[in-house]
Amino acid sequence: MSDFGNPAGFDIATVLTGSGLTLLLSAGITTYGDQFQYSPAELYGLSGVALVVLGVLFGLLLVLTGNR
Fold first, then answer.
1. Fewer beta carbons under 10 A from the terminal one: N or C of the chain?
2. What residue ranges are annotated as transmembrane (predicted)?
């Protein structure tokens, strides 16, 4: 039986959660971006780098613990 949550080769729940997190960050930057010393483009870049680093670290943790 195929995995219902993984029909296209990727986990739909993970994609939806990541998309929701990205939209929340975008909304926060749009709303409160002028209160920081960085421009909105820089804030988007910093949040993108932070998400990539968290994703890589979490992926490495999963590999090291034998869960992937």
1. N
2. 12-32, 44-64
User: Which residues lie closer than 8 Å to 51 by C-beta, 6 or more apart?
Assistant: 18, 21, 22, 25
**pTM strictly above 0.70:** no
SS (H, E, C) 6-31: CCCCCCHHHHHHHHHHHHHHHHHHHH
Domain locations in the chain as residue ranges: 37-68
Per-residue tokens: 54: 């968290």
Task: Give the model's confidence band at 7: pLDDT under 50 very low, under 70 low, under 90 confident, else very high.
Answer: low
Are 17 and 23 in contact by the 8 Å Cβ rule? The answer is no
- If you average pLDDT over every residue of the chain, what do you get? 84
Task: Please state, in angstroms and rounded to a whole number, the distance separating the CA atoms of residues 49 and 25.
Answer: 13
